[in-house]
Design goal:
Elements lengths: L2 E5 L2 E3 L5 E8 L8 E6 L6 E6 L5 E3 L7 E6 L4 E6 L8 E7 L10 E5 L2
Parallel strand pairs: 2-10
Antiparallel strand pairs: 1-3, 3-8, 4-5, 4-9, 5-6, 7-8, 9-10
């Protein structure tokens, strides 16, 4: 059974920084592409970033240059580093196995507010 547990969210001031983590189990993490998606209140789920098993990363235009996705295969952990947080980044962030439509965890709340 695929299990994904996100953590690292919180209340952050604009311009701040967060590192989100996602611990994976129940599948072979090192050969799996992974993604981050987010969903803001009243909005559709939005793809943020993906990383393939070789650590090649892709990003949504809205986050390119501020977000960095990475993975630690030894720890079965996916990361999302978020710099220069903006109010529009406020959302629940989920990691998914595979594409943005894949199985996801329970999410971690990121709130950007002064």
């Amino acid at each position: 059974e695929v299990q994904l547990v996100e953590s690292g969210g919180g209340l952050v001031q604009p311009g701040g920084f967060l590192r989100l983590s996602c611990v994976a189990s129940g599948f072979i993490f090192r050969i799996s592409a992974m993604s981050w998606v987010r969903q803001a209140p009243g909005k559709e789920r939005e793809w943020v970033s993906s990383i393939d098993p070789e650590s090649t990363a892709t990003y949504a235009t809205s986050v390119k240059g501020r977000f960095t996705i990475s993975r630690d295969n030894a720890k079965n952990t996916l990361y999302l580093y978020i710099n220069d947080l903006k109010a529009d980044d406020t959302a629940v962030y989920y990691c998914t196995k595979g594409t943005w439509r894949g199985p996801r965890g329970q999410g971690t709340q990121v709130t950007v507010s002064s």
